[in-house]
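User: Please predict the structure of the protein below. I'd like the answer in structure-token form so I can feed it into my own downstream comparison script.

Assistant: Understood. Taking the following sequence of 423 residues as input:
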Amino acid sequence: MKNGDQRPLMTLMVNKKHIVILGAGYGGLRTALKLEQLLQQNADWRILLIDRYDFHQLKTELHEVAAGKISAKVAAIPILKLIKNKKIEFIQAEVTNIDFNQHVVSTTRGKISYDKLVIALGSETEFFGIPGLSKQAFTLSSIDDAKHIKAHIHNMFAQAKNEKDEAERQAMLTIVVGGGGFTGVELATELTDYLSKLCKQFGIALNETQLVVIEAEDTILAGFDVELANRAQQVMKRKGIRLMLKTPCVSMEKNLVKLRTGENVRTRTLIWTGGVRTCDLVAEAGLKYGPRSRVVVNPYLESVDHPEVYVIGDNALILDPSTNRPLAPTAQLALQQAELAALNIYAEIKGAKRVRYVPKVVGQFVSLGGRNAVGWVWKFKVTGFVAWFLKRITLVRYLYSLGGFKLMIPRLPALSCSSEIFE
């Protein structure tokens, strides 16, 4: 269906059964592509992919967009380009409601009926009820967020150049990242290079700037390998990043971050990366859910309330069999779940046996700015350039899986760019 086609959606879908996929992120897009591959010879089913954006976002690279390392165009891939010549119909619309009893999804473009539904709408920032955060802090959940952060910091330095009030100037040149998890660490370490460039551009001494990471836990990268987390912490300190551990944020007032320790940090820029939760639409849809409003699913990734509804990625509550704790919402797991959801939907259609989901985390990497990273793959720990290279290979492989060399090769120069190597 063309974007310009404005006929009522319900009238466009007759005489066929419909698989409706909500969200074109890692999980939703992969589900659509896998189902299209499986249903090539089955003319009885239609695949409809719905997202409010007309592009697929490489969310694992948002910190690089925010820090000006790569352009937004590199991290945004047009969906119509990805599904060209494929039997997938894309609808650019925002989902407003899901009626599970009537099997109808309401959108800003109208209503869509479904026979099978896949919910992959992603997450929203969790502010933990901290006063002032939702209104005054920046978040990093989309390419628009990343572009906004980059432009804002640039504007702060431009203003600081001519600011006479010393306190106000210091607030402009102080960047606070709330949260020392994967996103917070990757953003902070990447921002150091961006701040250095801005200092040169506006004639500001680097020692006038301050980059602060506040974290409620007693370590960054909680739950990550301790040795690798310690190395990351050392790199951050060498980069001049101030780490404030065991320091929960209690409120954000105008230009002032208040901490439980009693200390305040004056800043014009707080970027909150302290956690995520299931998006409000899914949380309020009426499905059984657990922590962070993530939907409870059975071993086949179906909602325990409605077996025709599959839930994957950030929206699904899946326990780690080794710890019995909820798995972290990652792109790696979302892609695994997407593959399985597609296979299980196809198995249902064909009357075949379905497969239970068993999570497999084969590795994790955290970039540390430049061509530096830490991580592990299988049982091997890697650091420095090798870790960075392996992380990049993972991204390149993902791009290839979406669109082959035509999609991958034009992005390689941007994805290999770097400042100096930090050892």
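That's the full token string. Confidence is low (pLDDT under 50) at residues 1-7, 418-423.
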